[in-house]
Design brief:
Shape: elongated
Largest sheet: 2 strands, antiparallel
Structural class: alpha+beta
Strand order of the largest sheet: 1-2
CATH superfamily of the largest domain: LysM domain
Number of domains: 2
Radius of gyration: 17 Å
Strand content: 15-25%
Number of helices: 2
Order of helices and strands: EEEHHE
């Protein structure tokens, strides 16, 4: 259902039984991990999360790892302030 590397890939599934007996499969709540090791990045003009993710992880679609490490709900907020220090989790594996 979710692509390999997705933040939801490893989230457990559950089944909801709707009125009438129809079964609906859904993902349980995803817990935001607290990364054990971090590095930092200071935001400069023109920064975008996808470019930062590519620089640190080699994959622009891993931007969500930066969002999680910074507890950000709106990704664009992370790069809106020049000079802000972002927490970047270390590359996994």
């Amino acid at each position: 259902m979710f692509a390999k590397g997705s933040r939801y890939e490893k989230v457990a599934e559950a089944i909801y039984i709707a009125p009438g007996g129809r079964q609906v499969v859904y993902k349980r709540l995803r817990r935001i991990p607290n990364p054990a090791a971090l590095q930092t990045h200071r935001v400069v003009g023109g920064d975008r999360l996808d470019l930062i993710a590519f620089r640190f992880f080699g994959d622009p679609e891993q931007y969500w790892r930066i969002c999680d490490a910074n507890r950000a709900l709106l990704p664009e907020d992370l790069v809106s302030e020049i000079g802000r220090r972002l927490r970047i989790p270390l590359q996994e594996g």
